[in-house]
Amino acid sequence: MPEQWMKNLKSLERLSLSGFPSIVPMIRHLQHLSAELQELRISQVDKLELWRDEGNASSKCQVPHGLKSLQKISIEFCDNLKAFPNQIFDLQSLRYIKILHCDDLESLPEGLRFLTNLQTLHIIHCHLLRNRCQTKIGEDWPNIAHIPEIIVG
């Protein structure tokens, strides 16, 4: 059933997913989305995997069609998030990332440096990242130095 209604969402540009224990079941249906999503907001999700091959959780799989043009992603209030999802690096059109109130997020991945279209990174109320993202001296600085606008607070 979700496949059918996803195909009918031809003009969908923004999607917000909030309050799910896991978004994997919902995200896998984005392959059926006929629209090209511009913005994705994920909030209050316990298990954060953007997509995966259902047959093999460790294998790399293709970006769902509905996410190929994603330009903005916000990850908010995901209290159990310890690591940023690696799949983010497959989103080459991404221009904006906001991470808000993810208190257990320990570091940013090295792969952020490969998102060459990324223009803005906002990290707000993520206490473990504050020192790691300090200009020129933070451990994660080499991974984000190419981004024109960085706000950490």
UniProtKB/TrEMBL annotation:
<dbReference type="InterPro" id="IPR032675">
    <property type="entry name" value="LRR_dom_sf"/>
</dbReference>
<dbReference type="GO" id="GO:0006952">
    <property type="term" value="P:defense response"/>
</dbReference>
<protein>
    <recommendedName>
        <fullName>Rx N-terminal domain-containing protein</fullName>
    </recommendedName>
</protein>
<keyword id="KW-0611">Plant defense</keyword>
